[in-house]
Amino acid sequence: MRVENNINSNEKDKQTMIFKVGNDQVKLNPGIVRKYLVNGQGAVTDQEIVYFMHLCKSRQLNPFIKEAYLIKYGHEPATMVVARDALEKRAIKNVQYNGKKVGIYVMNKETNELIKRDGTIYIKETEKLIGAWCTVYRKDWENPVSVEVNLDEYIGRKKDGTVNANWTNKPVTMVTKVAKAQALREAFIEELEGMYEQEEVNVNLNDISEAEIITDDIEDIQDNTNEKSNDLTADDIF
């Protein structure tokens, strides 16, 4: 998919970024992002908005059809995630992609033996889930990319510290998704750097509106973003 990008150089619209994703023209500026594309109740900073705009442009993401999300709660740093399974979908389109393997690590409760297992089946009564692994193969690389992740480092928790519903009910699914996302990003870093999926950053996209934004209704909103942020380029960010 060829993407043609250009930034409006008109002085009035110097903060506006216009680029194409497929057949769609995407227009972003800080005012549009603040009004239409911020999820959560937090106040995003100028830097977070500029980063999000450059992420969408450089990675060819259309946030108006929910290919990318900017999420901000309270005073926490903003979180930027991509649509479900976005990394794998992009990797598959790469001509060098040559498949992947995914599995888990479990510990035998009686012997404390750590076992690396192909696939994702384990017996809860006798085994404890410890983590997951993923290996991604490229046709042009002699050695594959292998990633291992610990369950404890990524398990999603609520504000009170208890494990959230997804990680309680589907821990294998969640931790293998983290391993897969990290391995794919490392194997195809030129295309996937900066793109994170919800399981990696403790975000549940089910809590976010999936309604598509009708871009024809969007006003040409200008914003008083600090002009220093306009000097940022994709090279500064990625």
TrEMBL record:
Example GO molecular function term? DNA binding
Identify the InterPro entries for this entry: Phage_lambda_Bet, RecT_fam
One GO biological process term is: DNA recombination
Domain of life of the source: Bacteria
This protein is called Phage recombination protein Bet
Q: Which organism is it from?
A: Sebaldella termitidis (strain ATCC 33386 / NCTC 11300)
The taxonomy runs:
Bacteria, Fusobacteriati, Fusobacteriota, Fusobacteriia, Fusobacteriales
